[in-house]
Amino acid sequence: MNNNKISISKILPVLFGFFVMGFCDVVGITSAHVKEDLLGAYSPAFQDTLSNLIPVALFSMFLIFSIPTGLIMNRIGRKKTVLISNAITIVAMFIPLIDYNFITCLFAFALLGIANTILQVSLNPLLTNVVKGGNLASSLTAGQFVKAISSFSAPFIAAFAATQLDNWQYIFPIYAVITLLSTIWLMFTPIEEEAVEGKASSFGDIIGILKDKTIFLMFLGILFVVGVDVGVNTASAKILMERCGLSSIDAGYGPSVYFAFRTLGAFLGAFFLARYSSYKFFKLNIIGAVLALIALIFVGDKMAVFTIYAVIGFTIANIFPIIFGYAIQSRPDKANEISGLMITGVFGGAIIPFIMGLMSDTLGSQVGAVIVILISATYLLYLSFSMKEIKA
């Protein structure tokens, strides 16, 4: 009778976990700081390539750990899996404080990548244990909104640490404390989990589904849209530093503008998608994103650059869930396998920034990075015109 009733005491600690999930987006400002603080001693000629190894270290973990996490979660349960993720996050956040150098930063963000992979695989299913029926969709949206707030706030927390605590690196213990609070809150929240039914997806299941051309195109879509998202996050501060002469702290507001409008786009997208077809909405938004990226190659005015970040954030906001949902709808009989495959595609956040770094160092300018992001968005433009509307 009360299947659709929300227990606030249970849903709040789970939603708070989405704030921890957003910590992965600190790679953008960290990459800019690491380039400025550490990389001159390594190789002046390859500073962008090296600094972009920070997101590579993080997002490559999605390729390695997403499927094993699902298998482990079936054995130990969703809540315990989330708690393990939080423990790894806390450890990762203290490593740069123990010894701040390029290698320890790579190691810390690899650990954060493992933790974030585990969290992304387990937290959404855990939410289904505390929210039922018609409230689930809105609760999932609320979780993504909380994650977006976390992403948006990262540069402000870094600026607070730099100005009030005299070191931007104190963002890491701040994140560790937030994660610890999340862990304690969830640990003492009783959540009843249903027994796992059916056969868990295997590596063979996921690789086999790629033989379906539609699924393969959607997988590439996930890879490239995450690449665009992480790419803009990674390059935005560096572009402001290069073209506008901003400090790394002030340039950190570039990612904040991007995430603020991505949050707004996701919020408004829920209303637009209720009235218009998703694939037409996809076309309109990706056209806007491509035009903005073309403009970003040429502009140098600070306000113009911030405006372009806003446009890209707003237009890219709903593309991931549209592609994800389209893939599931195209083969509902393989929903579990497709879900695992799409999460694996998040490793596009490792590939695209690495290529961006190589291009930037080759051209001696962040224009190289923007070109790589533009090529990724161009694939999404192609995909939007290749999609056929699926009737639910």
What does this entry show, briefly?
It is globular and about 55 Å long.
Q: Could you characterize what this model shows?
A:
The structure is a single chain. This protein is mainly alpha-helical. The chain has one domain (11-189, 200-386): MFS general substrate transporter like domains (Growth Hormone, Chain: A, Up-down Bundle). The protein has helices spanning 8-21, 27-37, 47-51, 53-76, 78-98, 102-127, 135-164, 171-187, 203-209, 213-244, 248-251, 253-275, 278-298, 302-316, 319-330, 335-344, 348-363, 367-386. The protein is globular and about 55 Å long. The mean pLDDT is 84.
Provide the fold topology.
Blueprint: H1 8-21, H2 27-37, H3 47-51, H4 53-76, H5 78-98, H6 102-127, H7 135-164, H8 171-187, H9 203-209, H10 213-244, H11 248-251, H12 253-275, H13 278-298, H14 302-316, H15 319-330, H16 335-344, H17 348-363, H18 367-386
Helix pairs in contact: 1-6, 1-7, 1-8, 2-4, 2-10, 4-5, 4-6, 4-16, 4-17, 5-6, 5-8, 7-12, 9-16, 10-12, 10-14, 10-15, 10-16, 10-17, 10-18, 12-14, 13-14, 13-18, 15-16, 17-18
Derived from helix and strand composition plus strand pairing, the structural class reads: mainly alpha
Helix content: over 70%
CATH superfamily: MFS general substrate transporter like domains
Q: The CATH topology, please?
A: Growth Hormone, Chain: A
Oligomer: single chain
CATH class designation? Mainly Alpha
The number of distinct β-strands equals: 0
* Low-pLDDT regions: none
Secondary-structure element order, as H and E? HHHHHHHHHHHHHHHHHH
Give the CA-CA distance, first to last residue.
28 Å
Instruction: Report the C-alpha radius of gyration, rounded.
Output: 20 Å
Specify the overall morphology.
Answer: globular
Mean pLDDT value: 84
- Main sheet summary: none
Number of discrete domains: 1
> What is the second-level CATH architecture?
Up-down Bundle
Q: How many DSSP helices?
A: 18
- Could you tell me the strand content as a percent range? under 5%
